[in-house]
Amino acid sequence: MTYLEFEKPLADLEGKAEELRVLARKGEGVDLEKEAAALDKKAEEMLRDLYKQLDPWRKTQVARHPERPHCRDYIAQLFSEYTPLAGDRAFGEDHAVMGGLARFRDAPCIVIGHEKGNDTKTRLAHNFGMARPEGYRKAIRLMDMADRFRLPVISLVDTPGAYPGKGAEERGQSEAIARSTEKCLQIGVPLVSVVIGEGGSGGAVAFATANRIAMLEHSIYSVISPEGCASILWKDAEKMREAAHALKLTAQDLKKLEVVDRIIPEPVGGAQRAPLDAINAVGDAIAEMLAEFEGKKPAEIIKDRRQKFLNMGSKALA
């Protein structure tokens, strides 16, 4: 288990408990198991206390935890008959974006998501979940297919933002993001989105302009990263804590602002402590969101989605 900065006291406690268990297994003390169990109980209470009132910066750290389940894990657990589709039919393949045909609880669908990777090799291969233009154009191609064959679209958002490289800009990064966002608004099939980790900037919006948007309890969703915001406003990236508070990027803040529709509870200590429980909770939320659109006509689905975002704008201006 990788411990975050604010979890260091917990790491010490759990480490001591494990040391006592090792000694007990060697037969060096009959009461050591009891002492280890007492430390385990104390560690459990500390974990609950730590995660009871996480501030926005700590939530940002949890959302970025390397051991949180990623898009690939959700697809493997929640979807059957997954058939990945590659390429944008224009330039090439973008490994930061996964997508294809699948079955969700026996019903056919299209699933699209950002994949960050879980170690150095896979993170480099997936470009840390930062999509290039061809990734967004692949998503557009998949959404067109979903619309043509009347398949619901499920998107899993986990990205720091779109890739800011020179080549990406030369190939039309902003245009690709805009067209992907536009396509989200146009399709006449249900589109539901879940922010499973980090929802950064237009790179997230391009997948999450959905009929229903859910966020995991300790995920974040913002127009810019706290570090980027601090660099612009204060010329000091070290003020990321203040920026995280100002950005209102937590699931709880965004639910109050009605930017997202629901918060999916995570296991105590975050999704990284019990990945399967978190994945199953996301699956239940997706099923409930899709059920809201059973029997609805394409025009009704499009109107619902359009009205959702018009309502956000009117509330912001009020």
From TrEMBL:
Primary site of residence: cytoplasm
SUPFAM superfamilies, per the entry: ClpP/crotonase (SSF52096)
Pfam families linked to this entry: ACCA
CoA carboxyltransferase C-terminal domain span: 38-292
Enzyme Commission numbers on file: 2.1.3.15
GO molecular function terms listed in the Swiss-Prot or TrEMBL record: acetyl-CoA carboxylase activity; ATP binding; carboxyl- or carbamoyltransferase activity
Any one GO CC term of the record: acetyl-CoA carboxylase complex
Stored HAMAP family: AcetylCoA_CT_alpha (MF_00823)
Complexes and interactors: Acetyl-CoA carboxylase is a heterohexamer composed of biotin carboxyl carrier protein (AccB), biotin carboxylase (AccC) and two subunits each of ACCase subunit alpha (AccA) and ACCase subunit beta (AccD).
Family: Belongs to the AccA family.
Name of the molecule in the record: Acetyl-coenzyme A carboxylase carboxyl transferase subunit alpha
Gene name of this polypeptide: accA
